[in-house]
Design brief:
The chain has 1 helix and 3 strands. It has one helix spanning about 40-50, and strands spanning about 5-10, 15-20, 25-30. The protein has a 3-stranded antiparallel beta sheet with strand order 1-2-3, with no helix packed on it.
Length: about 50
């Protein structure tokens, strides 16, 4: 991974994953395996991580 801090959102066909890294190490991981378009999961990411 290039750099030290980043957030990765992987929206797939079956699930959505959120990975947060600091200093090159994963510090948080969230996964919704019910539906990749789940509005509430995406809103939670936005509100908890000040995204979008």
């Amino acid at each position: 991974m290039y750099g030290s801090d980043c957030s990765i959102i992987d929206v797939g066909g079956q699930d959505t994953k959120f990975i947060q890294a600091e200093n090159g190490m994963v510090v948080d991981f969230l996964m919704n395996d019910k539906c990749s378009a789940n509005k509430w999961f995406n809103m939670s990411l936005k509100n908890n991580y000040q995204m979008m």
